[in-house]
Amino acid sequence: TETRGSLFNNKYRFQRFTNLEGFSGDNQVVAMQSDDNGNLWMSTGLGISRFSTAEERFSHYTAEDGVQGSQFAAGSYTRDSFGNLFFGGVNGYNVFHPDSLTGNPYPPGVVITSFKIFEKEVALDTLITHKKHLIIPFNSNFISFEFRAMDFTDPTQNQYEYKLLGFHDEWISSGNRQFVSFSHLDPGNYTFLVRAANNDGIWSEHPARLYLTILPPWWKTRWAYVLYLFFGGALLWGGRWVMVNWNSLVSIRAKKISHFKLLERIGSGGMGEVFKAVDVNNRRVVALKCLNEELLKDPDNHKRFSNEGRLLASFSHPNIVKVYEIGETEKQGFIAMEYLSGGTLKAFLEKKHPVSILQIKNILLQIATGLQEIHRRGVIHRDIKTGNIMFDEEGSIRIMDFGLSKSHLVTTMTTLGTVLGTLGYVAPEQITGSSVDQRVDIFSFGVMMYEMCTGVMPFTGENEMALIHKIFNHHPPSPSSLRSDLPPCWDEVINRCLEKNPESRFHSMGEVMEAIIQLEVDPSEKVTDF
After folding, report:
1. What's phi and psi for 312, nearest 5 deg?
2. N or C: which end of the chain has fewer CB atoms below 10 A?
């Protein structure tokens, strides 16, 4: 079908298969025919696929298997009297007899090849493949497992699934990615399991297994609980105090979400509100992002909110906001993040413009460093703008708001005619809904550079349609023509970020950083106070 799937009629019902069931349908099926065994053969945008009607399983053949290419002509297929199948494409045609293609029926072995804490290999007293049980301290907040299938027929087609018993009991697909990371796991006992499928979709019979124990902090050890009992008598007095002050406690509880006491609202949007709050358990001040009660009832919004929290929790970088907790009450979902008192970059520019060229360069390098880490993890932010960049009390940068990001953790949720992102910052291909990569963030980064240097947006319009027209057709004035102290070399970097064609932009944030480092600045300029 044109919706990246296949529909098969099984007598009186239709059954839909997508990439979740093994279909490689990044593009529509352009031709389909059956063989003598009742199996279905189809040409797609990735090659030729075979569907076993008996096993309801797909097998895929690409250019590496001898297929003429990845583009086939619609309706260009036939079958001769000997049972040979023909599929025509832009580079010629393929002819084969279905019985001549043998699969790979051997279940692959799978091994765990590495264990890391904070991206550093853990030194063990034996090979990780021989290790059965690991014990780590409670402050190992970011751990990673690496693994590999022992099948080298076509390693690029191997697939992996994993689960961490004690954290989640369901198999989670890792695709062809050979590692997985976890952050902020509670102390306790866990079992990590991973299994693999070969290029023909045959899964391991026995998953690789590693037992993991995260030790509790000292305040949760047995001797600590003895001390708690010693002070238990104080609870009697506390109980009496609660009885005397019950009415005031009820009033305070009305201003709490879970164990967070709300102090003030610091922002709001379509998904909900953000509060300055304090964790009553440890008195830590946090920014509490809360999803509206009505939106929580929508499964798509609920999933987007949950995925944003899980995605943020997987990062550990000085220029990416830190997440402390993800939770949900009966009426609300919430994400507790570090509280940043410095405000947004948008507010800073409105208050302090013009900002010195030296300070602009320093801010841009911090943002670029954070984006480089985001892209390194395979994530596309898709909503980079000055309103999603914040300062801490020391003036360091944090990248915020991953609600529209795209990665293996987040499924794109949109409807026809809806633009994911903020108009004025989004790249042309993001507006059309085309396939996007990290270069949409580079375009948005270029918009921010232009805004920071000139105090105006490169693309404006009286309404959304006028703004979209400008993004596709307008070339803004060079920044140096709007600011006399800006060296012309800045124009080249900004204009390359803002290229309409993604192929003409920088291809990575690493390239952008190298270009920014080379930009001229006046070292005698003063840095604006926050």
Report:
1. -60, -40
2. N
First to last CA, the chain: 55
Q: Is 205 exposed, middle or buried (0-12, 13-18, 19+ CB in 10 A)?
A: exposed
Tokens representing 150 are: 């022992």
User: In this model, does residue 9 exceed pLDDT 70?
Assistant: no
Query: Does domain 6-100 correspond to CATH entry 2.40.10?
Result: yes
Kindly report the CATH number that applies to the domain delimited by 110-219. Answer: 2.60.40.10
* Average confidence (pLDDT) over 274-301: 83
Superfamily of chain region 249-338: Phosphorylase Kinase; domain 1 (3.30.200.20)
User: How many whole angstroms separate alpha carbon 1 and alpha carbon 17?
Assistant: 10
Dihedral pair phi/psi, residue 337, rounded to 5°: -120, 165
Confidence of residue 511 (pLDDT cuts 50, 70, 90): very high
Degrees, nearest 5: CA angle 294-399-530:
110
Q: Which of the 8 DSSP states describes residue 340? A: -
Question: Phi and psi for 490 in degrees, rounded to 5?
Answer: -70, -30
Architecture of the structural domain at 345-517: Orthogonal Bundle (1.10)
Angle, helix 357-376 to helix 439-454, in steps of 10 degrees = 170
Q: Look at residue 375 and give its three-state secondary structure.
A: helix
Please report the sign of the dihedral spanned by the C-alpha atoms of residue 239, residue 243, residue 248, residue 253: positive
* CATH 2.40.10, the chain: domain bounds: 6-100
Quick check: is 279 catalytic?
A: no
Q: Contact, 103 vs 91, CB < 8 A?
A: no
Q: Tell me if 405 sits within 8 A of 309, measured CB to CB.
A: no
Neighbouring C-beta atoms of residue 5, cutoff 10 Å? 16
Q: Which residue has the tokens 């493949």?
A: 129
Please give the Cα distance from 435 to 529 (Å, whole number): 41
Catalytic position from the list 35, 279, 300, 383: 383
| Statement: the pTM of the whole predicted model exceeds 0.85 | no
Where does CATH 3.30.200.20 sit in the chain? 249-338
